[in-house]
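Good morning C.,

I know you're traveling, so I'll keep this short. The sequence:
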Amino acid sequence: MTEKYVLAIDQGTTSTRAIIFNHAGGIVASGQKEHAQIFPKPGWVEHDPMEIWANVREVIGLALSKADITRHDIAAIGITNQRETTVVWNRHTGTPVCNALVWQDTRTQAIVERLAATGGVDRFKKKVGLPLSTYFSGTKIVWILENVPGARESADRGDLLFGTIDTWLLWNLTGGTDGGVHATDVTNASRTMFLDLETLTWDSDILAAFNVPRSMLPGVRSSSEVYGTAESSSLLREVPIAGILGDQQAATFGQAAFDAGQAKNTYGTGNFLIFNTGTEIVHSANGLLTTIAYKIGNGPTNYALEGSIAVTGSLIQWLRDNLGIINTAADVEALAQTVDDNGGAYFVPAFSGLFAPHWRADARGALVGLTRYVNKGHIARAAIEAIAFQTREVLDAVNADAGLPLTQLKVDGGATGNDLLLQFQADMLNVPVVRPVVAETTALGAAYAAGLAVGYWENFDDLRKNWQEDRRWTPRMERGERERLYRNWKKAVTKTLDWVDDDVSA
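The tokens, ready to paste straight into the viewer:
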């Protein structure tokens, strides 16, 4: 019998990839293409959904071509995606009413404040696990309905559909206007602010408070089941689409962190630490989010605590694209190694406010501690260190909430190729940092969810066997130095607060 494979579509913040995996969880081939980052105004971040859909089709073709296989060799398709990014489109034409509002976009702060006027930012948190924030999809839908001409009227007629990127891709892959499946999985649904975490249904009272018609919302499904098959004109026609996980949950799944007490940290555009709490819903007292980790078919729902950091890898892109002090993101490590330390400089990249554990939309980025001694090497090092400092803040919150300190941290994502970062991360956390052989754990997690649904993998034990350690970093820093650096970092964070007010609205 010819070997079969699983194809994962990994639709991220900056690019789209299709990756083909074998039964051992190894990468057979991949295709990747970046899409435009659109910044119409300060604080606004958009993507073109039609460009993303076109790129998905292109990278599928690239991956199949490189692997020299066809649809007949693919057992299932999994989807993973940037989670809160919001698309609203016409169900009859398939045309988005505007660009997608990206998870980093902060234009909805006035809507957040309006909704928080009754009950504060934690008004709905007990039900949905999330504070009111520009981060999540709910306020983005409201902004579109209130600001795009004709959108409210079309929504009230039942003509508009909402989806996070997984939903947009599933609908198009399964036929679009010709019978496309309008659905999402529980992990993405849990990032909208509309999902009751206990019942796994859209909450009518919250929808009424946001004034969002239920007719716009997708059906809520598990993370691993057959949602439909690819439509007839696709290169993957008739292949089942059988797994959907939001990117951070997918990375957790790809790290085989299936059980309560296990965690991972993904280093991507932002950083996202997920701590599995099993079937128990744990409400954070320390600035973390309560979210859904996964649900496999008719099995129990697994929950998690999450620490979401808005700007980490995108800070390195900013050094490249806005300042021009490096030519590629990979150059930042070599530049940082031209100096022995940060020279007293601390970089707090609150470009979209501060996410966990602070949740301060009024914060903006700051580079502090500057003297004439500081050069571009120190700035590069301060940027790398900022990623690790922010992760320590989040892990401290996880330890406080869970009451069970981590003994090691599994890591994945593009920035884990940076040895300087991972050593400094181990030093800041004072626990080992472990990188797996397959660093593309986000796509792998989506592949696993899809493969489980069609019997390509039998159970979690199959997946655990696939996980292999690549490298481990152990702490080297003296305790006094670690705490001195972290104390100065926390001082730097205070300098970013209360920046946005009536005079500075960006």
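Safe travels,
E.
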